[in-house]
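> forwarded from #structure-qc
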């Protein structure tokens, strides 16, 4: 008996199995777990799952920080699911700032495409690395470290940032400290700030909401 045809069928079956693992477009109708979304059926995947046009438009910078972060993470761009990469667009108006924040799950690379940005991060040894960046410059922010971007030029600034995760996460330090539900007395103990300082910082957050 010739086993070659069976061998070829088995080989093709194993290849088609490999192909099914090429990507895992996220099914955003189901909740995501730590490993991301579950995969949308390959039969339903089209080229449009791998294209995202949401970063073409500027974000709205009419807010407290005069800046906008427009994400293309797995939730917005499900084609990224499982690939360990993502992007976002930063629009920073004159005098705007992306305040001190971390991405718990990803390192970041920033590319300035317009204007001038003073960007920096703080190592876990509390050493500061910051520099003024111009159009075409790129800077790295290692995973989990606190960092910021300030528009230090005379016009609006635009940058694109890429991440080593499809879901990098974002925690803004001031919101974490002063926009939480902890009683002020505990915030004061945990931060060494006095009552007036904590109330002032909490009010900033309320102004932003109003
Ligand atoms: C930008 O946001 C502000 C404040 O929320 C709002 O008043 C304004 O209409 C928005 N502009 C655009 C173009 O969406």
């Amino acid at each position: 008996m010739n086993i070659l045809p069976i061998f070829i069928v088995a080989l093709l079956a194993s290849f088609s199995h490999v192909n099914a693992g090429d990507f895992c477009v996220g099914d955003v109708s189901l909740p995501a777990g730590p490993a991301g979304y579950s995969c949308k059926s390959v039969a339903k995947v089209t080229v449009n799952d791998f294209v995202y046009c949401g970063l073409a438009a500027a974000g709205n910078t009419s807010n407290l920080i005069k800046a906008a972060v427009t994400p293309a993470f797995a939730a917005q761009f499900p084609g990224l699911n499982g690939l360990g990469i993502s992007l976002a667009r930063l629009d920073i108006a004159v005098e705007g700032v992306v305040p001190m924040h971390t991405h718990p799950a990803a390192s970041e690379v920033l590319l300035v495409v317009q204007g001038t940005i003073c960007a920096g991060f703080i190592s876990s040894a509390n050493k500061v690395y910051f520099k003024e960046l111009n159009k075409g410059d790129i800077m790295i922010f290692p995973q989990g470290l606190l960092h910021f971007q300030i528009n230090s030029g005379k016009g609006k600034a635009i940058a694109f940032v890429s991440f080593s995760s499809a879901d990098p996460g974002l925690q803004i330090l001031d919101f974490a400290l002063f926009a939480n539900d902890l009683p002020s007395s505990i915030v004061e103990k945990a931060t060494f700030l006095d009552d007036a300082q904590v109330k002032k910082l909490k009010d900033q957050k309320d102004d932003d909401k109003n």
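QC bot note: The chain has a mean pLDDT of 90. The CA atoms of residues 116 and 134 lie 5 Å apart.
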